[in-house]
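Supplementary Data S3. Sequence and structure tokens for construct A.
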Amino acid sequence: MVSRGCATNRFGILVLGISLIASVGCDRPGGTEGTDRASFASPIMVSPIITTAIVPQQVGLSPALGINCVGFPAVRTQFDLVIVNGGTGLFISQIGFRLLDASQVGGSPLVVSASDISARFGTALIGPGAQRTFTFDPQFGCGTFVPAFLSADLFFTDTEGSEHHKHVMVPTR
């Protein structure tokens, strides 16, 4: 019995190599030959620079009054979420806040949608080169573990339609 796996792999590698050489040939660094018909940007140029922080660097938790829990009590906190946009305009698509235990396992996230952000803060847009601060005061329901960290997962869509994700985490006290 003859094996064709090796020939198939060689053909695939050959096609991939030729396509890479052809794509590099389309990317002219400059000259007077006219405009480029195809070019490839480096990932650094495509991805916006997004910096996120939770202030203060260690958030306090206080009991949420009026909720009776069997396990760990319901808690609330207050903090600022600071977002610095170093690229094109960004829209916040969604933010998920989650309390985590010492092993960084947590419960269900509290999800804040773009429409929730727009209703509370006026707009979910962070302009190019801008910094915005969003103050949140979430209340987390009854838990089965002692929270050690607060995490935030932020999802953005830029004005070009590309999606981006950032994660930030701070300890609780």
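Construct B, processed identically:
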Amino acid sequence: MTNNNCAYCMGGKLYEPFGIKICDLENSVVVLFKEQSHKGRVIVAAKDHVGDMAYLTDEQRAGFFGDMAKVANVIHELFNPDKINYAAFGDTGGHAHFHLVPKYEDGFEWGSVFEMNPAKVYLTDAEYTEIIELIKNKLI
């Protein structure tokens, strides 16, 4: 199912305020979060427009979490965080997704809950492209 008002379903201009699509995986869409206070932060969204993980079949949910683990392994390999925080919200968006937020002991917000959008670190187009290509090359 697709929702024409959903960024994760429609992509393109609906991503622009917050992210850039990296790639599609079998069960999900991977998006680079533009605000990079936590270097390597991405979003992994369910491929289908579903509002809650409970509405996925067991097979879909297992596939989604498998994709998320694959992305997390790539983030660990490329960016060497001390920990990845996983956050699922979607109160208003209505599309099941997780933020994978790399945390660094000597970095921003270590030991506390991360801010959704601290609006502190934005990159150049070339820097976004570099990160996207690094992640994409490891995922596909």
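The longest strand covers residues 97-103. The CA atoms of residues 27 and 64 lie 5 Å apart.
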